[in-house]
Amino acid sequence: MSEQRSDDIRNAVRSSYAAVAEASEAGDCCGVESSCCGVSDDAAINALISTRLGYSQADLESVPEGADMGLGCGNPRAIASLQPGETVLDLGSGGGFDAFLAAAEVGASGRVIGVDMTPEMLAKARANARKGNYSQVEFRLGEIEHLPVSDGSVDVIISNCVINLSPDKAQVFREAFRVLRPGGRLAISDVVAGTELPEAMQQDLQLHSACVSGASTAAELTAILAAAGFADIRIEPKDASREFIRDWVPGSRVEDYVLSATIEAVKPQAGQVKGS
């Protein structure tokens, strides 16, 4: 992919999610074209979206109002097995929803870092953290291809429907490998391509921001993760997810091409043979 194309994608994604954050703050609705699942001024609609993705009503009620924006394509925390005292990194943390839920599991002795490249999202997340008094959560401005996080400092990386947006997924996973401690793990919800996308769909920047055009196949992601150094790679597509993906861009048939998946992998311990 050319540098110009990569820049075009990042700029389109940043602009789209800035619009999502601003619309959410204003109580407006900017529609599915601006994000994976759109944003609504109706908390009941956002709650319906999130419960379809695997969150409980208790999850929704435990975070500050406005943190759940109805974004995402799964619940990475459900596969993360978070433990008290762990350090968690949320890639593309948005309004902070998954970061705040992770904070409840790692407790006061743990730490959660959210990274997002959109200043408007970062401002929203920080405001939500103040409202909820999350002293162990911080949000940093940065791109997931160039994480503002030190080497070997993170136990678990979570992410919810964000890595598909990157034009350089190999760099994302190299960075993830760098910041994880040996034995650290990935617990990601994202979209994967079930079949090759039509060329017109691949080139559509609006569909890229809608979590469609940037989807890679499970085989491609497995190869990228292995090349980055990860072991115990498990990618499980969820065929039932096509039901809610259909709502992302109604009438476009995107559900014929992409579906949600869980993506898990481990950074081997020193001396551990990959796959053992």
UniProtKB/TrEMBL annotation:
Gene3D superfamilies from the UniProt entry: Vaccinia Virus protein VP39 (3.40.50.150)
Q: Which GO terms describe its biological process?
A: methylation
Write the record's keywords in alphabetical order, separated by commas: Methyltransferase, S-adenosyl-L-methionine, Transferase
User: What does the record give as the reaction this protein catalyses?
Assistant: arsenic triglutathione + 2 [thioredoxin]-dithiol + 2 S-adenosyl-L-methionine + H2O = dimethylarsinous acid + 2 [thioredoxin]-disulfide + 3 glutathione + 2 S-adenosyl-L-homocysteine + 2 H(+); arsenic triglutathione + 3 [thioredoxin]-dithiol + 3 S-adenosyl-L-methionine = trimethylarsine + 3 [thioredoxin]-disulfide + 3 glutathione + 3 S-adenosyl-L-homocysteine + 3 H(+); arsenic triglutathione + [thioredoxin]-dithiol + S-adenosyl-L-methionine + 2 H2O = methylarsonous acid + [thioredoxin]-disulfide + 3 glutathione + S-adenosyl-L-homocysteine + H(+)
Enumerate the transmembrane spans. Answer: none
Pfam assignment, any one: Methyltransf_31
EC number per UniProt:
2.1.1.137
Q: Which residues form the Methyltransferase domain?
A: 83-229
- Coiled-coil boundaries: none
Which Gene Ontology terms cover its molecular function?
A: arsenite methyltransferase activity
Instruction: Give the signal peptide range.
Output: none
Which top class of enzyme applies to this chain?
Answer: transferase
In terms of NCBIfam families, this protein maps to:
PRK11873.1
Q: Which family does it belong to?
A: Belongs to the methyltransferase superfamily. Arsenite methyltransferase family.
Name this polypeptide is given: Arsenite methyltransferase
